[in-house]
Amino acid sequence: MNAMSPDPLSPQVPTTRHPVAVWPWPIALGLLTIFGLLSALLGQHGVWLALSWAALSIPLIVTVACLFKAWCRTSSVKGGQS
Amino acid sequence: MTTRTLRRWFVVHKWTSLVCTLFLLIVCVTGLPLLFSEQIWDTFVGDDDPPYEVLPAGTPNASLDVIVDKARALYPGQIITSVNPDDDEPAVLVSMAPSWQALKDDENYPDRHSGHWIKFDARTAKVLEQSRPADAPKEPRTWTGIIMGICNRLHTSLFAYLPGRLFLGLMGGVFVASLISGTVLYGRFMKRLPFGSVRTDRASRLTWLDLHNLLGAATLVWATVVGFTGLVNELQTPLFGLWRVTDVRQILRPYASLPVPSQDHLSSVQAAFDTAAKAAPGNEVTGLSFPGASFGSPVHYVLWTRGATPLRARLFTPVLVDARTGELTGAYPMPWYLRFLEISRPLHFGDYGGMPLKILWALLDVVVIGVLVSGLVLWAAKRKIATDARLQALGYELDDTSELVPLPHAAGEGAR
């Protein structure tokens, strides 16, 4: 299990000492949301609808991925201690 | 950012969030069933209409004049108030009443409903269904109807009519302020933390804070759009009122003092529909109200037309046709603030991109509920710390002091 957990976010050092770029991810997710909201509204056709669904799912997928990663890390820590 | 500015932003975020969280939770939860109301009605109640006659494809619709004459013959001496072809079924709904005065009097008697309707097959002009007579025993309400009604009224007005709508609109504004201040705080607290990290190995408070930050950052734009368009939607009554006392009054001024002509001498309804379709090219005519209707003209048919694309489907352009002569008086595109309102509607309802978009809307809504709940947990935990500290300062011994350990990341230290 431990081998599977990603290194940069290992349980011992969750925060970095150096400042990280705060905004790229939220801005990317925000732009995807705006694109998704507008493409279905302005496009109406099949492709634009599908692009809208895809764009709006990405923030949800990223959220679930982050939660899943955290959950895996917790269970691997607990697994290591027991 | 200085500590002082940060503290200010924190106070703004805390109070704007506290003010709107309860109402936001109500709105988010009741919004879920409303999003799928069509499916819920179909599943639990079903369509109790008699089945439509199967006719060869391309059967032309009957003239609306035939339908109107049939309605008059069914209720001689009554007036027709409006004629509305159905959006997606081959049906025409004709609304009637004993008189305009009777309808006006209804407003003073909540139990009285003198208006009624008849549903015709649009192609054969046969009567499909009629509204229940006013003196008939009330139809038993279904659970679906009760629950959906409660959700709808909670969501739009908290059961408080116009004041409730305006209040919820204000809460929408406060919510947007809370999102903006939250974004500023996010920039401050995430400086040394990679995006999306949820620390589960430290104080549980940090887990909640990371969750709050992650869920909030992922749904920030969606929540802002839906919150702001919700605010605009709640303003519809005053916005339509403004339009009515400005443009509409101006347009109707030359006719305002004319008497309402008898319905026996009005021009053709079908011709009015055709005239309106020509006057607003690209639009479909969704309904007609007869001269004398409240907020209308005493001598005009008012026809409502709307755009045919999702973006313009909620942009209504009223057309006036003189009911004495059948001539077009004019088409009146709505002012910018009502156009803005009409564009705000699809962006709030999420009903313009098929079922997948509705499902995404629901999931994003659930994530926003997560943001609200984690925010409440953070606030409650903070309060507990503060209360414990005060109690200790007063000399009380507390069993559980673990919460008093200074936090490594000192999130929101400016609160107190």
TrEMBL record, chain B:
State a single Pfam family of this protein: PepSY_TM
- Keywords annotated in UniProt: Membrane, Transmembrane, Transmembrane helix
Q: TM spans, by residue?
A: 166-187, 208-232, 359-381
Q: Where is the signal peptide?
A: none
- Keyword Lipid biosynthesis listed? The answer is no
Return the PANTHER family for the record: BLL7967 PROTEIN, IRON-REGULATED INNER MEMBRANE PROTEIN-RELATED
Q: What is this protein called?
A: PepSY domain-containing protein
